[in-house]
Amino acid sequence: MEGLIQLLRKMFSTELVTVLVSALPISELRGAIPLALAKFHFPVHKAYILAVLGNMIPVIPILLFLESLSNWLSRKSKIAEKFFNWLFERTRRRSKVIEKYGAIGLILFVAIPLPITGAWTGCVAAFLFGIRRRWATLSILAGVMIAGVVVTAMTLGAFRIF
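Now predict its structure.
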């Protein structure tokens, strides 16, 4: 990851690197906020805003195109079909709170700053459980904002400890 960040820093501004890291499915804002605060020395508000914006960039396209993309790719390739079956089943198993509480559960699911609980997986879960796009988008935004506060507080707390 360090090598990727160094490459991105040579090509783009630190602000854009923060947004891009936050938009990635693995790191999301859980990686972007510590990066922005510890490595780029951004003020807290700047790190938070850039990370939230970056984390929300893929949400609308995923919500709009996941169904048609997964259907199309699954018809074209057995590997894609197996991947989407695995992804959808894994998401169903890990998102019982969304199944039970709908849009409110989606907020809680995305807000928990753990692996596989961010905006990307929240989009997949919203699709699987039939949450309308408008509510899914608002719920994911609320969850991302809460996760941003939690990650920022944890990062600042780690600074104080170390």
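Residues 133-161 form the longest helix (29 residues).
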